[in-house]
Amino acid sequence: MDMFLKGKVAFVTGGASGIGRQCCLQFAEEGANVVIADKQYDKAKEVAEECKKLGVEAIAPPCDVRKLDEASAAVKAAIDKFGKIDIFVACAGVLQDAMVHKMSEEQWDEVLNVHLKGHWWLAHEIVPHMKAAKYGRIVFIASTALRGTRGQANYASAKAAMIGLVKTLAYELGYLGITANIIGPGLVHTPLTDAFIKNEKASKPMIDSILLKRREDIGPHFAVTQDIANAVIFFSSDRASYITGEILLVAGGRMI
Q: Residue 90 domain-assigned?
């Protein structure tokens, strides 16, 4: 491993499980210190310990992104510990599925508050530190669901709105060399999607629509968390220093 992120500090929401956890581990493998910001505090602490075993520093401040004061406290904990935040990865997510005419206001607000409002607020808190350092990498995890998907009006709307937020950050921060990009995963096997994937009747049409077929020894055709984390690491590194405001779909060609 080149460890081309050695000494950097990565702040990852949703870092206790799924894509976020994999990002934290790969950041640690690349030499970055990690802030695992998650409301699943016990799991986040376990991920922090895994990161430390890879030779870096890691902390796990409680961070329910819906609670703005808690999000602010998590950023403060990161600054108090490391003195900076070089990389901000917005990965926390939640599902509250229902058809539009059956969706409650609470279901709508829950998903928008996590994916959009909470991550806007964290950008609000983190960006001043990046501006002071004249350095930063911002990566938001959106979804191919942004084009609309049955039963997920809240989720699709939130993911589409995240694109507007990130592109605005790219406009506002580009003059300092700070980048902001979006990754749009397709179907990824995580704790959030496990039940769906195991429901073959529901998931088979989506899996069959993936163009890029893996070898049988690698596993099923849907993405695994490492596929998404690889893209996050790239956008977080200086190898992507001249890329900003872009959307990278990591979906096995499903969106062609």
A: yes
